[in-house]
Amino acid sequence: MIRINLLPHRAEKRKLRKQRFYGFSVAMVVIGALIGFIVHSVYSGYIERQEARNAFLKAEIAKLDQEIAEIRRLQEQIDSLLARKQVIESLQGTRSEAVHIFNELARGMPEGVYLKSVKQAGARVTLVGYAQSNARVSHLMRNLEESPFLERPTLVEVKASTVEGRRVSEFTLGINIERPKTEEPVQQKPAPAAKGKGARK
User: Which Gene Ontology BP terms does the record give (predicted)?
Assistant: First the structure.
């Protein structure tokens, strides 16, 4: 009977299997590393693009903040100019009030009455003066009430006083300046007086 020694052949197969296993393992490691590199590159690209977008958005936001700050500054300047314009218009509208006040006082001042002081605070005028009698003060109030520029005369105080040895009535009188918003109310104001005169007839 012939005997064949198969040990070398089996050793060769075992060695070949080991080589194939090592080769397959190395190939898997290389393929895994390659896949990892590709995935890392892809995600790195995504991250770089997103960072670029974020940087662009930050730059645009900074520009918008500057524009908003400029708009606010311009709005403040506009508000300041409007406030100045309103002050100027108010001054222009009221600069002739003193002239009107003195004209109306001169027209409505009866004999035996003279003023010691005239003070204005806004639309309110305070008159302090002397009259020969209380009737003269009443006459003054009626004259001022008929003025188209002055309204609602109010007697604040009247008291007896002595001026240069003569007894007189010292009075304090308040009156408002009529500031019509439109010309229509001023033109219509004399109408009630005309109707009243007609009723008396």
Answer: type IV pilus assembly; type IV pilus-dependent motility
pLDDT at 183 over 80: no
Element (H, E) at 64: helix 7-94
Which pLDDT band, with edges at 50, 70 and 90, does 163 fall under?
confident
Ramachandran category for residue 112: left, alpha or beta (phi over 0 → left; psi -120 to 50 → alpha) = left
* Any domain includes 25: yes
Q: Is the domain of 151 the same as that of 95?
A: no
Report which listed range, 13-22, 101-110, 148-157, 183-192, is most confident: 13-22
Rounded CA-CA distance 61/31 in Å is 44
> How many folded domains does the chain comprise?
2
Average pLDDT over residues 171-189: 62
Is 171 inside any structural domain? yes
Strand order in the sheet with 113-121: 113-121, 124-131, 166-177, 150-163
Are 80 and 140 in the same domain?
no
* Domain region containing 25: 15-108
